[in-house]
Write a structure and sequence with these properties.
heterodimer, A: alpha/beta, ABC transporter transmembrane region fold, Rossmann fold, 20 helices, B: alpha/beta, 6-stranded mixed beta sheet, 4-stranded antiparallel beta sheet
């Protein structure tokens, strides 16, 4: 029943693959299921034949019905009819069972392929697409695409049914068949016209609903403000206006949708009445039997419904293909970070050397050019500079999250492209501004980077970071659930968990994008103390936002537009009065005790 | 049903909220003439449609033994008339029902919205905005689907079974035997089918959610995954989920394939045909009546099979109605106290042995033994870790919540005795997540006082150190917040909110200043704006800025809902170990510096 309404909200989509390509790719996935699909197709044909056969059989039986037909014959007739219906049911059962298995397996395979391909990609891919989009490609689009198969099978069975029935009717009476067929283009035409109108109203409705949503979203989020200032009446009046308009638009859409079936029924009624009369005359003139006459009238109903569904097939089919395209687009793309060897460095010291490196997220916008930097093993290096100066890029290249265009990055003297990535990254620690935690317990999160670590080691790492107090503050200690993305923990607690995670990993190199996230002074103190612990004795690259870190670094690198313009120690740089002094006044001055002490006077 | 309420909308229609069905019924009753129209028109439509099948049988008899020259033509024209009548009645019936459905949706949304406005702020703080959104849009939408096609289809099922059966009874009463057995067995088997299918559909939906959430998590945390080289672990996690989903999908396919009622229908068709032929052989009915019976049994097909779909729609519609009613009926904790104490406020705040917990948490006290006194015009900094109760403490002051025990006094009067309007209009609050409406900056600043002149708005913005950056926008004060290109930083939003507060000129200002200033210039400006705000009012400051804590008249250090230390900076350096630890780092830094 919903068939006529399906696929109305299809949106235009830019395509890179042709229909033929996509169908070929989809069929390729179905190849391992060829046996099941073959049987299913045979079942579809058989069921369609039987379903066409039932009304034909009834009409034959009516014709042969006499006052003196034996009881045995009547029973046989009923039995055959029941058997026909039962067989068609059994065929459908086999078909649906097999199709469910085949489609389930194909969708699973596509999802696995898509997920594998996503995980292989480098970070540039994740920068480009939101996580929601990627997820919906892997999970939803892969399902939508199996619809293409279901849809095609469904259409096939309906078309077969119509063809068989019409074919049979044509052999009986060409005249009545032509009356029947004359109706077909009208029904198709009405169905298509309806879809055109419905598409317009549904677009209007969708827009209206979005407007209602955004209005409600805004006022619900702003209800606190409205209440604080006692302005409820204003937003109430606005709401009434939007709601009234939404009523008008949605009601129109509903009217359009509910008028189509009565209209089609009236058309079918005209067809039925014509068949009753023209057929009746035919019976009287001996051209056909009463049973066949009845068959035509019943046939009309079996035919017109599939016709309306054909009207929606094409847009549905395109919708499925578009989904297929999105999935294949994901599967086909190649990651840019490619390792040419898999060397292991069992004793990673953490010496890093950039020589003549050129890098840009997009080739036409280079971030680093002819970049040279040597970081000694065990050194703490602070990177400072304005946004866009290339601080994060340096850190991300060390983590091998991106491919660089030119030059060399050497880790302990070995080209980073020759390293076994998982071995290397296992010795690399990273803490970002808003640390990400996985749903699970604190313990599981600390252990994430080193799953084989013992409980004692986990506890030791946690204690080492923030002392006993923060663990005790957790409701169930280390077994407290962190919630989705760590939502059950405060920002400070999340930072501590992330730090413990890195400490347990015992990395030789640490990359730290220092937190600017707002935490209370007490938590900040805790985190700072934790950081001091983690950094001790390791190579550290710190994107510094805190005065204390900058000051404690072994070396400060001042970056501007991807170039190192100053380098040295805090006192020395500040005294030089160059770019660093300017940065200090912009970003760090307010973190100094002098500033705090003078705050009252300044105001 | 006199609910406590913070806002009463004018001229509202009242609905029966005692139970879900009563509530739905009271909404529909508002448009009873349309509802009645639906039943009337659809009874006619079904009578016409089923009647046309009987007429087809009559036509068969007429063909075989003509009664008059144009007897067949008359019957054919009657069939045409009846079928057109069916279409037209169905059209009118549908439009009536759709009208009720669309209005129900809009009315329920209005009812929900008004109830949201009437609820206390405490109520809203407890709700997630996304959840309320879903109820106001998706759930109200489900309500209209509950009417059409939910209830209408169920009604049609009843008509579409009863009316054809009545016609069959008129042909010959005993012919009812098979169709009645079919309907009965249909009900039994369809029920069993749904009972088997529902849990699988549910599991499948849950598993889909789990698969999505798992992958979403992996991708959101991809930096950690890659940095820890744990891709294989995440891959296996996804595969496990995807495989489980496949199993549910296949199981659903199995159950759907074994849909018994379809088989029963085949039996019913065969048996009623047999029955009719047998009666014909006995000479009790004519060929036309055999045809009519077969055609009428055919009519049964649609209503029986559509009803499953209709029932599931009704189920989800009811669930939506429950969710909406849950909000609508939710008691507001506070009342307006229209006749309460009302006077110009001086801004003296006293907490007397205050205890507080949120209703649902129960186990753990949010605030315990809170007692302090703030003379009018002083600035108090509240310091403590997340979850230590800082926000809750400020929420008691403007009566977002009420104390569980003890008293909160403003100017010596219990906040519960203040008129809510007088209390709130004199207490300004700037939340951590500052909300700005998608309107112009000027309108946002003048939100509390829509009558304010442009000069007043500008003066307020200047005081809040917001004038300069507002003027730097191409459209200045007419810039619409949130439109392309005008994303405001946290510091800028905060200063607009401060300007808003300046314009309403509250006696007590509560400021949750947890935004971080990443540069010193912003810090300077925020410092100045807040300094300005402190002039002549009592200020409660939740802040992370050491420079503000340092200079507050009173510092309250909260730990686990208790005040662990209170005093000025100098006093706390002496008394509080935590406080010393915080400042130790700064001292360390400054010693090295000098």
């Amino acid at each position: 029943m919903g068939f006529l309404f399906d696929g109305l909200d299809a949106e235009a989509y830019d395509r890179n693959y042709t229909d033929a390509d996509l169908v070929k790719r989809i069929l390729h996935y179905f190849r391992p299921q060829a046996g099941k699909m073959g049987i299913a197709a045979a079942m579809i044909s058989a069921a369609a034949l039987l379903e066409a056969g039932i009304p034909i059989f009834i009409s034959r039986s009516i014709d042969t019905l006499r006052d003196d037909t034996s009881l045995g014959r009547l029973a046989t007739t009923a039995l055959i009819l029941t058997i026909l219906a039962s067989c068609s049911w059994v065929f459908n059962l086999i078909r649906q069972t097999l199709a469910a298995q085949a489609v389930g397996d194909v969708v699973l395979k596509i999802r696995e392929d898509a997920c594998d391909s996503v995980l292989r990609r480098d970070m540039s891919f994740y920068d480009q697409f939101s996580s929601g989009k990627i997820v919906s490609r892997v999970t939803s689009d892969s399902a939508a695409f199996s619809q293409v198969m279901n849809l095609s099978m469904e259409l096939l069975s309906r078309l077969l049914l119509v063809t068989v029935l019409v074919g049979y009717l044509a052999t009986v009476s060409l005249k009545l068949t032509s009356i029947l067929l004359a109706l077909a283009p009208i029904i198709m035409g009405v169905a298509l016209a309806f879809r055109a109108i419905a598409r317009r109203t549904i677009t209007a409705s969708r827009r209206m609903n979005a407007e209602v949503s955004s209005h409600i979203q805004e006022t619900v989020s702003g209800i606190g403000v409205a209440k604080t200032f006692r302005q409820e009446a204003v937003i109430h009046a606005e709401f009434l206006g939007v709601n009234r308009q939404s009523l008008r638009v949605n009601r129109r859409t509903r009217y359009v949708f509910s008028s189509i079936f009565p209209i089609l029924n009236i058309l079918a009624g005209i067809g039925t009445a014509s068949l009753v009369y023209a057929g009746g005359i035919g019976v009287r003139e001996g051209e056909l039997t009463a049973g066949t006459w009845f068959l035509f009238i019943q046939g009309l109903q079996s035919i017109w419904f599939p016709l309306t569904s054909i009207a929606s097939f094409w847009s549905q089919f395109q919708l499925g293909l578009a989904a297929g395209e999105r999935v294949f687009g994901l599967i086909d793309a190649e990651p840019r970070v490619i390792q040419s060897d898999s060397q292991r460095l069992p004793q990673l010291r953490g010496e890093i050397r950039f020589s003549d490196v050129e890098f840009g997220y997009k080739p036409e916008e280079p971030v680093l050019q002819h970049f040279n930097l040597h970081i000694r093993a065990g050194e703490t290096l602070a990177l400072v500079g304005h946004t866009g100066s290339g601080k994060s890029s340096i850190a991300k290249l060390v983590a091998r999250f991106y491919e660089y265009q030119h030059g060399q990055i050497l880790i302990d003297g070995v080209d980073i492209r020759h390293l076994d990535l998982s071995d290397y990254r296992a010795r690399l620690g990273m803490v970002t501004q808003s640390p990400f935690l996985f749903d699970g317990t604190v313990r599981e999160n600390i252990r994430y980077g080193r799953p084989e670590a013992s409980d004692t080691e986990v506890v030791a790492a946690a204690r080492h970071i923030g002392g006993e107090a923060w663990i005790n503050a957790l409701p169930q200690g280390l077994d407290s659930p962190v919630g989705e993305r760590g939502a059950s923990l405060s920002m400070g607690q999340r930072q501590l968990v992330a730090l413990a995670r890195v400490l347990l990993q015992d990395p030789a190199i640490i990359i730290l994008d220092e937190a600017t996230a707002s935490v209370d002074p007490l938590t900040e103190t805790l985190i700072q103390e934790g950081l001091d612990t983690v950094l001790a004795g390791r190579t550290a690259i710190v994107i510094a936002h805190r005065l204390s870190t900058v000051r404690h670094a072994n070396r400060i690198i001042v970056l501007r537009k991807g170039q190192i313009i100053e380098e040295g120690h805090h006192q020395h740089l500040l005294a030089a009065g160059g770019h660093y002094a300017e940065l200090y006044n912009t970003y760090f001055r307010h973190q100094s005790l002098e500033y705090i002490e003078q705050a009252r006077k300044a105001a | 049903m006199a609910q406590r309420s913070e806002f009463t909308a004018p001229n509202t229609y009242t609905y029966d909220q005692r139970s879900t069905w009563r509530w739905i019924f009271s909404h529909v009753r508002r448009y009873w003439y349309f509802a009645l129209g639906f039943y009337l028109f659809f009874t006619i439509a079904w009578a016409c449609y089923a009647g046309s099948q009987v007429l087809i049988g009559r036509a068969a008899d007429e063909i075989i033994s003509p009664s008059s020259a144009d007897g067949l033509l008359i019957i054919a024209l009657t069939i045409l008339g009846v079928l057109v009548g069916d279409g037209v009645s169905a059209l009118f019936g549908s439009l009536s029902a759709e009208n009720v459905a669309a209005r129900f949706e809009a009315d329920a949304r209005q009812e929900l919205y008004e109830s949201l406005l009437s609820k206390s702020k405490g109520f809203h703080d407890r709700q997630r905005a996304g959840d309320i959104m879903a109820r106001a849009t998706d759930d109200t939408n489900q309500l209209s689907n509950l009417i059409v096609p939910g209830i209408t289809l169920v009604s049609e099922t009843v008509m579409g079974i009863v009316i054809p059966l009545t016609y069959i009874a008129f042909v010959r009463l005993e012919l009812l035997l098979v169709p009645l057995c079919f309907v009965a067995s249909y009900i039994v088997t369809a029920k069993r089918y749904v009972r088997r299918l529902n849990p699988v559909v549910h599991d499948q939906r849950e598993q889909f959610g789990a698969m999505n959430a798992g992958l979403e998590e992996t991708i959101s945390g991809i930096e950690v995954v890659k940095a820890s080289a744990r891709e294989n672990f995440e891959r296996e996690k996804f595969r496990r989920n995807a495989r489980l989903f496949r199993d549910f999908f296949v199981r659903q396919g199995y159950i759907e394939a074994r849909y018994l009622p379809l088989l029963l229908y085949g039996f019913a068709l065969g048996l009623s045909f047999l029955h009719a032929m047998w009666l014909y052989r006995q000479g009790q009915i004519a060929v036309g009546q055999v045809i009519a019976v077969v055609a009428l049994v055919n009519v049964l097909r649609f209503p029986t099979f559509i009803s499953l779909f209709a029932f599931s729609l009704i189920q989800s519609g009811i669930a939506s109605a429950d969710r909406i009613l849950h909000i609508v009926r939710g008691e507001s904790d506070l009342d307006e106290q229209r006749a309460g104490y009302s006077a110009p406020m001086r801004g003296e705040i006293t907490f007397e042995a205050v205890e507080f917990d949120y209703e649902e948490s129960g186990s753990k006290r949010v605030l315990e033994h809170i007692a302090f006194h703030i003379p009018a015009g002083k600035t108090v900094a509240i310091v403590g870790q997340t979850g230590s109760g800082k926000s809750a403490l400020t929420q008691l002051v403007n009566r977002t919540y009420e104390a569980t025990a003890g008293r909160v006094l403003i100017d010596g009067v219990d906040v519960r005795e203040w008129s809510l309007h007088a209390l709130r209009s004199q207490i300004g609050k700037i939340e951590q997540d500052i909300f700005l409406f998608s309107r112009t900056i000027a309108e946002n600043i003048a939100f509390a006082r829509p009558d304010a002149t442009r000069d007043e708005v500008i003066a307020a913005a200047q005081a809040a150190q917001a004038h300069d950056f507002i003027s730097s926008f191409p459209n200045g004060y007419e810039t619409v917040v949130g439109e392309r290109g005008t994303t405001l930083s946290g510091g800028q939003r905060q200063r607009i909110a401060l300007a808003r507060a300046f314009l309403s000129d509250p006696r007590i200002l509560i400021l949750d200043d947890s935004t971080s200033a990443i540069d010193s210039a912003t810090e300077d400006q925020i410092q100045q704006a807040i300094r300005k705000a402190q002039e002549g009012r009592t200020v409660l400051l939740i802040t992370h800025r050491i420079s503000q804590i340092r200079w507050a008249d009173l510092i309250l250090v909260l730990e686990d809902g208790r005040i662990s230390a209170a005093g000025t900076h100098e006093e706390l350096l002496q008394q509080s170990a935590i406080y010393r630890r915080i400042f130790a780092r700064y001292d360390l830094v400054s010693q090295e510096d000098s």
